[in-house]
Amino acid sequence: MDANSRTIVSHKIKTLDELVKAIGPRPRERKVIMCHGTFDVVHPGHVRHLLYAKSKADILVASLTADRHIAKANFRPYVPEDLRAINLAALEAVDYVIVDPNPTPLANLKVIQPDYFAKGYEYVDGGLHPKTQEELAVLEGYGGEVIFTPGDIVYSSSHLIEAAPPSIGVDKLLALMDAEGLTFADLRRALDTIRGTKVHVVGDTIVDSITHCAMIGGMTKTPTMSVRFEKRSDYVGGAGIVAKHLKAAGADVTFTTVLGKDDYSEFVLKDLKAYGVRCLPIIDSTRPTTIKNAIETGGYRLLKIDTLDNRSISDKIRAQFASQISGTASDVVMFSDFRHGIFNRQTIPDLIAAIPKDALRVADSQVASRWGNILEFQGFDLITPNEREARFALGDQDSVVRPLATELHRRSSCKTLILKLGDRGILTYRGRPDGDPRAFFAVDTFTSRVVDAVGAGDALLAYASLALSATRNEVIASILGNIAAALECEIDGNEPVTPEGVAGRINFVEKLANYG
Questions:
Q1: How many Å separate Cα 11 from the centre of its chain?
Q2: CA–CA separation, 227 vs 208, rounded Å?
């Protein structure tokens, strides 16, 4: 839905004070009926409910549950409140729409005092629900009535969304940008402003290798697979690829890491130098450079062989790290933690203390199958865990993602949290007063086809951090980071995302927004 379409119906969307003024106090000549619900996806069941309600009064008010109070299923609401309000306002039968900031409609019922309150038949079938009893008590207190709409057909938004989520990513993006006063031109300008940002990346280097093989067969006496070696491809990964993403975006990048005294150390240094990353390696002859070698046959990963030493770095090396962090002029200091010896409970406090005072502090802790906790990076400006890492940090396997993210944002004392949700996109929480409807927002994925999702989080981390440093705007940072992640998913192998690629995807999405 474009800006003009939203303008056509925006006069129906009211604040509480505006609505009360529009309908007037009781008793009214024109009767008012109110419906309340989530209306995550407006389907035929909702339309029948609204049409029946409209037939019983002169004015129909549709009340929406605010995003922050919806926790009935994971990744819900699927449609954000601004867009849900527009969807209802576009219906001819609906006269006014209001987004209720409270967890229940009780407070608004007391203020609005509709003549009738319409409920679905499922709320009376088998006896009144306790919450409906509370609503009934409010209505009877001022002389209002509850009307139950026919219940011969029931449709579930949750079932429809889980079975086949509607493709509304562009509409959700437009609603978010419109609410924030942003345009696609602002996104393109942000790409230019990030150039030259001084970033100091501190973290674990990983050499990601793929050994490509062809299937020969299996042994007859043992369950052993036989493959023929064809070729091996090596890529600089871990914090190294984060540094390369940053450099590709136009940043001035310094990289502090620990490497072994071996051939792969030379491979890493040569690759980073060729790419223009200023590397300050600390060589530890007692450990190997970390290598993760995946054995691939016919497009399938059969086995992964890791060469690594996860022991904590020595006190001497920790002091070298701290010295390099404090001694490097930086707009952004980024801790890229893969738990291969640099970051742990003993080292993290000293490394945090060494960060220059005015630098933007960013942390990403990819724990995978190792011990690690994003909550060890307290008070950072930006953290970017995925859902699994958030659940691990909080010891919470049960909460749906919104309260999960709320708790992680609170416990980490971070200013901005970008929670990575894979093919669901991202959920961003930012430091705003509790109850502010703009305290969090979702951005759907921009991926057109997934070739290799490995490294998508690194691309998001790089572009989101640069954009946040340059613009101090969490929405711009989230959108650009999410686009970079989408582009990385479409590349086979861990290759840096370029600003030209990001700009091209921005242009593509803008065309979709303008109906091509």
A1: 31
A2: 20
CATH architecture of 3-163: 3-Layer(aba) Sandwich (3.40)
Instruction: Using DSSP bridges, classify how beta strands 300-307 and 145-148 pair: parallel, antiparallel or unpaired.
Output: unpaired
Q: Residue 94 in 3-state DSSP?
A: coil
Q: Does the pLDDT at position 327 exceed 90?
A: yes
- Rounded to an integer, what distance in angstroms lies between the CA atom of residue 258 and that of residue 143? 74
The whole-number average pLDDT for the span 351-355 is 97
CATH H superfamily, domain 167-195+359-516: Ribokinase (3.40.1190.20)
pTM attached to this predicted model: 0.76
Per-domain boundaries in the chain:
3-163, 167-195+359-516
Q: What is the pLDDT of residue 153?
A: 45
- The conformation of residue 498, written as its DSSP 8-state character, comes to P
pLDDT for position 127: 56
Higher pLDDT, 477 or 369: 477
Q: Distances from the Cα of 381 to the Cαs of 76, 317, 474, in angstroms?
A: 26, 26, 11
With contact defined as beta carbons under 8 Å apart, do 268 and 302 qualify? no
Query: Using CB atoms within 10 A of its CB, is residue 93 exposed (0-12), middle (13-18) or buried (19+)?
Result: middle
Query: Which residues does residue 35 pair with via DSSP β-bridges, in sequence order?
Result: 62, 118
Q: Going by DSSP bridges, is the β-strand pair 59-65/96-100 parallel, antiparallel, or unpaired?
A: parallel
Peptide bond into 499 cis (omega under 30): no
Structure tokens belonging to residue 302: 């059969």
In the three-class reduction of DSSP (H, G, I as helix; E, B as strand; rest coil), residue 335 is classed as strand
Radius of gyration, alpha carbons of the chain: 27
Residue 403 CA: distances (Å) to CA of 67, 176, 415, 504: 11, 20, 17, 35
Helix (H) or strand (E) holding 349: helix 348-353
Any idea which residue has 């958030």 for tokens? 390
Closest Cα to residue 249, out of 285, 294, 293, 199?
A: 199
pLDDT digits (tens, 9 = 90+) for 81-135: 888 898 899 999 999 999 998 989 999 999 999 999 998 765 555 556 677 888 8
Rounded distance between C-alpha atoms, residue 141 and residue 390, angstroms: 45
- Indicate the length of the chain as a whole number: 516
CB 26 within 8 A of CB 143: yes
Q: Which helix (H) or strand (E) holds 336?
A: strand 332-337
Give the confidence band of 290 by pLDDT, cuts at 50, 70, 90. Answer: very high
Q: What is the DSSP letter of 289?
A: P
Pairing mode, strands 291-297 and 300-307: antiparallel
Report how far residue 116's alpha carbon sits from residue 124's, in angstroms, rounded to the nearest whole number: 16
Instruction: Render pLDDT for 181-223 as a digit per residue (tens, 0 to 9).
Output: 999 999 999 999 999 999 999 999 999 999 999 998 876 678 8
